[in-house]
């Protein structure tokens, strides 16, 4: 298959410019997400570099396309690396961004390097390989913390790096003006280079935008399921995760226990000592309760001062032991008003309430009110006497 080089160059410029503008628009609309901003800069620098390399060649200004044009193209590769680096949570590295362009400029000061097309091709490809490899490394070392589908971006980046490694070995170089004038086999690798770079630019823009969107959705979802004060799950999160836990315990024929906790005299605490003290009490209780939970248990704030603990593989006796530990540790906390902190806890197990989370909550609520009626600062199993 023969690819017309001038046509490919024009298509390359047009598509890179279009994708770059769209990425710039996504950056502005996406609350200035830095990853998209750096990627937009990479694409638009790629357009500028391609124009400089192609438009001024053979008109008596070869120093501009050879030196300045390739410097801009290396800055484009550096920006792509920076986009991936910023996406993984690291800061841009300005010396690293400028290193490729600076190295190219210094190499071009050497007449032997400047006059050797083969050496220039190898050096330019090696700089591209370095930046592409750094981008792949950023994704790989942060893979456990990304929580998004990073593999498409990693595979695409590694393929692009491998292509330029092959270029170092097989491409002896062809003068750009000769390549533009040629449409036969002599320009086949050069046209393939343009084609691959174009596909890579489109692909990396698409997968990066997808990763940014996926991470934003995860953040919104986490915010929707998280209590902002205590940092634990809210009522929606507790019900969703709790139902799954109850079903799992029923399937394994394991008991499950529910603890419904309510801080005593919370309104009086807020009225007498201010809402800051109330918030402090909520956070302190959360810390104690979470410290008493196992990894498989579910805990959440389901109301203003009301919390729920769902214990896997635990009967009411085991639930009572956990509840008593929470009640005692909370009551013993040093607070500005001694004796003000206490909690009442209602307990029910699947033996009494079955494997129905709503029914367990209702029965635990009955036990909780019984604990309140008996003087607060106590635990009460269901059924209450």
TrEMBL record:
Q: Which EC number(s) does UniProt give? A: 2.7.7.65
An example of a Gene Ontology cellular component annotation for this protein is:
plasma membrane
**A Pfam family in this protein?**
GGDEF
For the biological process aspect of GO, one term held by this record is: cell adhesion involved in single-species biofilm formation
**The protein's required cofactors:** Mg(2+)
First-level EC class: transferase
Q: What are the alphabetically sorted keywords of the record?
A: Membrane, Transmembrane, Transmembrane helix
Domain GGDEF, residue spans: 254-384
Q: Where are the transmembrane segments?
A: 6-24, 36-57, 63-84, 96-113, 119-137, 149-170, 190-212
Coiled-coil segments on the chain, per record: none
Q: Which reaction does it catalyse?
A: 2 GTP = 3',3'-c-di-GMP + 2 diphosphate
SUPFAM superfamilies, per the entry = Nucleotide cyclase
Its localization reads: Cell inner membrane
List, in alphabetical order, the Gene Ontology terms for molecular function in this entry. Answer: diguanylate cyclase activity
Q: What is this protein called?
A: diguanylate cyclase
């Amino acid at each position: 298959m023969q690819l017309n080089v001038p046509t490919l160059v024009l298509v390359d410029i047009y598509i890179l410019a279009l994708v770059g503008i769209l990425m710039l628009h996504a950056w502005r609309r996406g609350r200035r997400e830095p990853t998209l901003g750096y990627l937009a800069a990479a694409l638009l620098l790629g357009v500028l570099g391609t124009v400089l390399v192609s438009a001024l060649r053979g008109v008596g200004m070869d120093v501009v396309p050879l030196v300045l044009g390739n410097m801009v193209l290396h800055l484009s590769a550096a920006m792509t690396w920076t986009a991936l680096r910023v996406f993984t949570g690291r800061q841009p590295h300005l010396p690293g961004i400028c290193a490729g362009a600076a190295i190219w400029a210094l190499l071009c000061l050497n007449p032997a390097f400047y006059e050797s097309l083969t050496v220039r091709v190898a050096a330019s490809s090696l700089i591209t390989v370095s930046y592409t490899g750094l981008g792949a490394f950023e994704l790989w070392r942060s893979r456990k913390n990304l929580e998004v589908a990073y593999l498409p971006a990693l595979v695409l980046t590694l393929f692009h790096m491998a292509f330029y490694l092959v270029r170092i070995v097989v491409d002896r170089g062809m003068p750009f003006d000769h390549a533009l004038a040629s449409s036969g086999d002599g320009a086949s690798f050069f046209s393939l280079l343009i084609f691959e770079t174009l596909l890579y630019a489109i692909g990396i823009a698409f997968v990066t935008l997808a990763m940014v969107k996926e991470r934003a959705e995860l953040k919104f979802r986490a915010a929707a399921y998280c209590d902002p004060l205590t940092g634990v799950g809210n009522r929606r999160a507790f019900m969703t995760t709790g139902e799954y836990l109850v079903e799992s315990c029923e399937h394994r024929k394991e008991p499950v226990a529910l603890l419904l906790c309510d801080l005593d005299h919370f309104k009086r605490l807020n009225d007498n000592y201010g809402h800051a003290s109330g918030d402090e009490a909520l956070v302190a209780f959360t810390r104690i309760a979470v410290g008493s939970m196992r990894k498989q248990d579910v805990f959440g704030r389901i109301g203003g001062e009301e919390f729920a603990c769902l214990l896997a593989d635990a009967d009411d006796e085991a639930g009572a032991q956990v509840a008593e530990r929470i009640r005692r540790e909370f009551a013993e906390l040093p607070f500005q008003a001694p004796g003000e902190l206490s909690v009442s806890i209602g307990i029910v197990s699947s033996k009494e309430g079955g494997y129905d989370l709503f029914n367990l909550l209702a029965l635990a609520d009955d036990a909780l009110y019984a604990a309140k009626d008996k003087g607060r600062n106590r635990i009460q199993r269901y059924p209450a006497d």
